[in-house]
Fold this sequence. Notes:
Elements: H1 2-21, H2 25-30, H3 33-56, H4 60-89, H5 100-123, E1 127-135, E2 146-150, H6 161-173, E3 178-181, H7 197-200, E4 209-211, H8 224-231, E5 235-236, E6 240-245, E7 248-252, H9 268-273, E8 280-284, H10 291-296, E9 301-304, H11 315-322, E10 328-332, E11 335-339, E12 357-365
Helix pairs in contact: 1-3, 1-4, 3-4, 4-5
Amino acid sequence: MFGTILISVCTVMHIYVFWRTASVPLVGRHVPRWLFLTLCTGLWVLFFLGRVVGHRHTGALAVAVELVGMDWMAMLFLTFVCVLAVDLVTGFGFLLRRLAPTLRGWALVAGGILSVIALVQGLRPPVVQSYEVRLSGLPREMEGRVIVAMSDLHIGSLLGERWLAARVAQVQAERPDMVVLLGDQFEGHGPAQAELLPILRGLTAPLGVWAVSGNHEFHGRGNSSLSLLQEAGIGVLRDRWAEVQPGFILAGVDDLTNRRHARQQGGPFIQALEGRPPGVTILLSHRPRRAARAASAGVGLMLCGHTHGGQIWPFNYVVRQSYPLLAGRYEVGAMTVIVSRGAGTWGPRMRLWQPGEILSLTLRGEKTRG
């Protein structure tokens, strides 16, 4: 269903952009009609194959087609936004009749410039974003401890072993006391890759390496990726909690769209948190939803991902309609929520004004009055 909607929306944008491009004087004078139509059709086919072939096949050719097709999808989106903005300002050509076609040409240039910037930003390594989090009742032994969190790695055909190894090195450079993975560790195309095991085993921390599932962990191949994580020595929290230190509890839920949650009484948070001992609780949830429910259950810190911060501006304004907790730090009652923009990318290897990130969290107890 998602793929059908995505292809339909991109097809509409494709038709719109090329329809308006045809009205640009420079294009009309210098680009033969047959070449224009061939380019229009060819780019749509490239996008379609990038979406379909990249999700169903492996190999160098499939990877190349997926990369180019998905990057074209992002370029199309940015160009669509620029051209639509000009059309809105000019009343779709009814205002500024003589100037409107030329302005559409400049909109195409703007879309191209933004696409180049997005390509450069998408290829950059994620930044390390540091936070200091105060938790009421934090055990003295946990004062100053560092938790490093990664989300949305999307390891697969486009982001592979070398990229993952670099991210592991970034995490270990922070000298973490605990490492947590917030879902969508894998893209979900084909079986989990056993060759990633030595790299994943490079994630180490005194208080353990822990993970929860994201929606991509359930794409097409069951839970083999979760088994791979467990084989690498990573503790997978599937609607359960673990007491990492006396008075310090780490809980995690499967992705909130996982079908088995529909059969649970009271929702996944109840099962993940019930029966836990007294103390500070940190909750890992791939999607930044139901935060108020987690806060009412006594969670002190909730860590999430999934949104990518919108990944490509101005798509973040669209994503915010579904996920008001889009990226960064929020306070929900007495609970802190931190939403990661993710370390990797979904679809295009592009980001615009929403850089990838790894979270480094330093835990502090409450300030003493005096």
